[in-house]
Amino acid sequence: MTHPPLSSRLRDALGSLSARLLLAFLLPTLLFLSLAGASVYALARASLEDELGASLSALAAATATQVSGERMLTIEPGDDVSGTRTWRALVRLLDGVRTASGVRRVYAVDARGRVRADAGGGLPVGTELPDLARDRLELTRVLAGKRAASQVLFTGSDGLLYKTGYAPVVQDGQVVGAIGVEGSAAFFGPLRRLWRTFVMASAVALTVLAIIAVFTARGLAGPLRRLMDSALRIGRGDLTTPVPPEPTREIGVLARELEVMRGALESRDRQLKLMLAGVAHEVRNPLGGIALFSGLLQEDLRAGAHADANSHVDRIQREVAYLQRIVEDFLAFAREQPLARAPMEAPDLVSNACELLSAEAHGKGVSLEVSAAPAHLEADGSLLTAALVNLVKNAVQAAPAGSPVRIRGELRDGRYAIDVQDRGPGVPEAERERIFEPFFTTREQGTGLGLPLARKIARAHGGELSLRSTPGETVFTLSLPCPAPGALAAPAP
After folding, report:
1. Where is the domain boundary, 284, 301, 334?
2. Within a domain: 2
3. What's the confidence (pLDDT) of residue 332?
4. Which helix (H) or strand (E) holds 474?
5. Long-range contacts: 138-146, Cβ < 8 Å, 24+?
6. Is 159 helix (H, G, I), strand (E, B) or coil?
């Protein structure tokens, strides 16, 4: 199964990030505006409808108090044609209410729903009012002596919405009819305009949020894309191009960490190349010697010169031992060894390293002068001993015969410093910068890994290895962290 290239997948992820940010900005806002707008509109409409119904029914009740039920019932069909005085008086009353209140229509009906007077509607006396069939439930409440308003808005011939308020006409404690008042729901015009304004404002807000989301997505995608390009370059083996810093805090941290990783990879790659070149260079000489002396050995054996053959075998064995030391030093330097920390005494570390070199120093006529102040360390004893042995061995080899090599350990600025001093010719200034490089050596049989390995061990412990050299004096200083009293763990039984 094939997979798309890493660059394609990263670009797809960045595109998806932009889309997700856009949705994260717009979707909640759209849902909120829609729900909030619809809820506010519904509440406003319901409140205004209730207020209109209450006003119309109150106007109807006020009108009903001015209507005589007894006289209203005397109005018969045809009175509107002949224009009887009772009919004219009732119509005049209703028309005055209509004009004064600005409603569209005011009418009076009997208990059976037949028109007795209609101001604004023009229905003849005795006609059954069609609107009452729509408001049958409300009319039932009115005939029971209560005010009511139509629950449903209806559309008039002029295209506007209307509502009707009802109130009972009472005669001698009995409901004999009802007054109906039709009023226009004129507030729905401004309410609709308000709704349209809200929708337009919401659209503008969503557009502004979309623009902000796009710029925010670009602001995030740009640095991430640059990080992606840097990661791809590192993945392709380009370890020399630095990772550019980013101003955004979180992405800036990623950029810095990626740059640290790139630097570490570059340093390790450079060390690996140096080590490979050094191994190839160091191995070539003993291999040439082995080839030469094995050929001479073969010739001597054929000629029967066994005495010379033994010397050739000795030389071959020395070259093989040197090859073995090169391989061991190379593996020790290249291997990442975990530290086995344990409590130890600083004087024991110094004395153990010096004891291992005492025979070699005596053979060269060099004395070892040791002084170590007491201190507690938490370290890998075997690795530190190997590092210190390298330092003392170099000092013994550099020291003139009969001169001392001083090894002194003391507390210095909160750390434990071990100085290894010799009276040799010193390290030339041109070589001081390279002396800790792998495979750099001035000795014929040196691998050039002793000092780099010692510094690597020191840094693994949180310490440092430094050099101070003048003609006639060279001092290597191994500085180690010194835990506070009581911070060391108790040794295992």
Report:
1. 334
2. no
3. 61
4. strand 473-481
5. 138/164, 138/166, 139/113, 139/166, 139/178, 141/166, 142/166, 142/167, 142/168, 142/175, 142/178, 143/111, 143/168, 143/175, 143/178, 144/175, 145/170, 145/175
6. coil
The enclosing H or E element of 127 equals none
- CATH number, domain with residue 358: 3.30.565.10
**Beta-strand runs (E) in 276-402:** 342-345, 367-372, 376-379
Number of H helices, E strands in the chain: 13, 13
What's the CATH number where 62 sits? Answer: 3.30.450.20
How do residues 190-223 score in pLDDT, each as one tens digit? Answer: 656 666 776 787 777 777 777 777 777 676 667 7
Q: Give the angle subtended at the CA of 427 by the CAs of 422 and 432, to the nearest 5°.
A: 125
Q: What is the pLDDT of residues 136-154, one digit of tens each?
A: 888 889 989 999 988 877 7
- The pTM of this model reads 0.43
What pLDDT, in 10s, does the model give residues 317-339? 777 776 776 666 666 666 666 77
Domain that holds residue 157: 10-189
Q: Is 142 exposed, middle or buried (0-12, 13-18, 19+ CB in 10 A)?
A: buried
Looking at residue 314, its amino acid is D
In contact, 407 and 476? CB cutoff 8 Å: no
Task: Looking at mean pLDDT, say which of 31-35, 158-162, 410-414 comes out highest.
Answer: 410-414
Q: Does 420 lie in the same domain as 324?
A: no
